[in-house]
Fold:
Amino acid sequence: MRDPVPTMWRPLFTILLASALLILSLLFCFRPALALTHETDSAALLIEHGGYLLSQNGRIVRGYHIDTPFIPASTVKLVTALAALEILGSEHQFTTRIYQDKADNLYVQGGGDPSLTSEEISRISQNLHQLGVRQIKDLILDDSAFALEGPVPGSENSPNPYDAPGSSLAVNYNSLPLIVNNHGEVRSGEPQSPTLDLSRRIGRHLKPGWHRVNVEAYPGNGQISNTLRYSGELFLALLAQNGITAQGSLRTGPVPDGARLLLSHHSSKTVRELIRDMLKYSSNFIANQLFLACGAKAQGGPATWAKGRKTIKGFLQNRLNLSSGELYLVEGSGLSPENLSTARAMVRVLEHFFAHRDLLSRKDSIPLKSGTMKGVYCYAGYLPLDGQAQPFAILLNQKTNNRETILRIIRP
Structure:
């Protein structure tokens, strides 16, 4: 039988055949992304205003409106987390410093610790007692490490804890737990925290039951903000529980030159541990404390919103090669509708966050962060694809919340 390919043409035929096979294999690899159109993509058909993207090893598997920016809500906490891990460092601990002057006034200088809780303040009080402190005159609060231009962008200052504002000296996530009984009597809502005068004053505005409230949503009393009054009253109460009494008043002011440093208290939680809590509870307070701390670390104190924005913008451009048109943050929690992200940009963040994906909580075995506001429903996380975790983002800015259905459709 005659050979259909003459000997002289065999090398060229082999090259052409190999090239054809390579092209076919590439087409097969990209088939899902190339084959789906809006009419044939069942996920896209559910999207009125939004986009999604599923990526595998940097390659688009499937997506829709991947380069259109949308409000991402709390999924921006992934951006804040990644920036904090790289700018502050995963093992960084926030510091609260205690000073004393010659008149025996005690100064508490806040360092922006997002986890300055009653338990932490009890440890501070115990350490001060061990150092020989038994009596002080005035308790003076120094919150000069932050110089915020205004409230959290997007905050409505509602009683809800998610609206609690940031401060360099805030306690218990700046939210107050309390119980009001049927007779209007008020007591602390948790055993580790004493009942404060501020609790009783705010409790008068509340119905019977257990509450946790944003202290700044209620009328103040005097020249001290409710945030600092809460911090000061809690410090005074826990100092007293540990044998340290105050003879003077509660006031605010900077630590003066010549005051003696008594104690540098490092938070018991590292940045990595704080991020785990932030993502698990979707804590706006932790997120913005980290956002502001990144700005102060990169550009020097005091922390401001402008420094935070500039630092995160530079981080996204220099580290992730993302422009403001692709990902833009005015604050770090997702409260503001001015925050914007494309699905492609969010997936880029997830690609860089991959080594830290264990910090994410799981939903039906999928590690992800949700984001929810009125008319905003988002997911960002990792889906199993060919035995590996691959990043995905669903950003919906629409009335219909069908992110669950979309997630089921795109899940391999």
Summary: The domain at 93-269 is CATH 3.50.80.20 (D-tyrosyl-trna(Tyr) Deacylase; Chain: A;). Residues 186 and 200 are 6 Å apart (CA to CA).
